[in-house]
Amino acid sequence: MFKIDEVARETGLTKRTIRYYEEIGLMPAPQRSEGGTRQYTQAHIEHLQRVISARDVLGFSLQEIQEYMDYAQALTGQRELYPQIREPERQLEKLREMDGTLEAQLRALDEKVSKILAMKQELEQFRDRVTAGIARIEKEQDQSEAKITEGKNS
Q: How far apart are CA 54 and CA 52, in angstroms?
């Protein structure tokens, strides 16, 4: 069991952020001691690390993180149940369910990637215009300096 200070240190989040994530349902509520102190587990830390990855690496909003974590939690539950199923029809049903969950997760990632690529393309086009402007002005300056040098030499 970990106290909130230890979880904050381990994840790099503030205690306030950890409490907020718990409050909005982004993280499961920890058990509490008889004195009311939150008692976190390693699973809580790992969950928060996945949240941080979704936020920082994937650039997800809190709502997108919630959806992504819901899919991840559903997939974990599906994976845990699968080995217990013996009938091929039920196995097939569970595999199709997992496939649907994975498809939803991949679709969310694809949407984010598309937005990022569109933004990147827009910035690249703007940079091309800036670079062309720099080249044009530098050329004009070089031509102007050349004329001044010619005038002095005449």
A: 5
pLDDT tens digits, residue range 39-86?
999 999 999 998 998 888 888 888 888 988 888 888 888 888 889 999
* Tokens describing residue 51: 């949240």
In order of their start, the domains of the chain are: 1-57 (1.10.1660.10)
3-class SS of residue 76: helix
Q: Which amino acid is at 119?
A: M
Residue type, 113: V
Give every CB contact of residue 120 below 8 A, 6+ residues apart in sequence. Answer: none
Residues 124, 14: Cα–Cα separation, whole Å = 36
Q: pTM here?
A: 0.66
